[in-house]
Write a structure and sequence with these properties.
251 residues, mainly alpha, Arc Repressor Mutant, subunit A, 3 domains, three-stranded antiparallel sheet
Amino acid sequence: MGISELFWNADLEQLKAGYVEEAEIFTCLVCGEKVEKGIIYPQEGVLWEAERFMKRHIEQEHGSMFYYLIGLNKKLTGLTDHQNSLLRLFYEGKSDAEIQAALNIGSSSTIRNHRFVLKEKERQAKIFLTMMELLKEKDNHAPSFLPLHKHATMVDDRYNITKEEQDDVEKKFFPNGIDGPLLKFPKKEKQKLATLRVIIKRFDIEKVYSEKGINEVLKNVYADFVTLRRYLIEYGFLDRKDDGSEYWVKK
């Protein structure tokens, strides 16, 4: 599903941890799960205080923040496929010889060069991040862009949409409210994406649907449910088995 505004507003330490601490709760940055402070949570015969329970939630449900982050779309991480593979192997503690074998890299000097390039990328990212933080203090005219969803595909100008633009699309194409039917499926790609953001909320993120089940939900949205289903998959909101027997919301 979508990456929340809470995720994008989190600082580096919060992103590393995978959750943010608020007044009375801890909130998971990946799925939005909330754990209330002051409550003891029993699990598998062990009693967990709130923060430790949230850390356990991150481990059990999402593996680790490293794997979640590196699994994001390359337009979000800025990594090439090769850099992605290298970082995974570095994180797993592989030796240079093991990395050479896994990626068919000719020599250890090549791996050292890749490490250097990644280090340069880190330095550049720190400088850019600092500049953007300073810019926020001065730029009073910056629009509020909607965050990308995790599995966004073909990330380009169609994702360049503000909260105000999203609201306008919803009013135009869902005149009876976002829980009502779709008036028509837009022709403009940016407006298509905006309508799909609304439609995907009709589905239970924890449920696995049959094709018939998917169609039943979409028929209540728009007569051409096949087109809606195709675009929800194409834009990375839904996934399915190759034989079409099961569908689910991408998390």
